[in-house]
Structure prediction request, 119 residues.
Amino acid sequence: MQVIIGQVCSEDASHLKPVIGQYAAYDPDDKDLDPPIRANNQWSRAKMGIHHPQLARMLCPVKHLVTDGVIRTRQKLQDGDIKMRALVWPAMVYSSKIAGEHFNPQQVQDGLFEGYLLE
Prediction:
């Protein structure tokens, strides 16, 4: 039973790969991810997650964007200096066009679960 469940989950996720760039972009009609992610391109797949500048910003713990800035936070994520834990919300769950842009560490509940990917 567990093997079948794993296969179903894998199959479901594989259908998202070709269109992840369309879903992750704030306004895909206006501008796609930069650099773009293409389904059948080995280089594109290697640059997903924390290795892609825009996706890394969405995935990283939002409190680190405020203290360290985008470039430094992304490097710390890639080096393993920042642990991505469930207790710290990723920037993409907060409201704004750019992930984590309006995060206020004094009011962490403001804008929580209002990110455009959650609409």
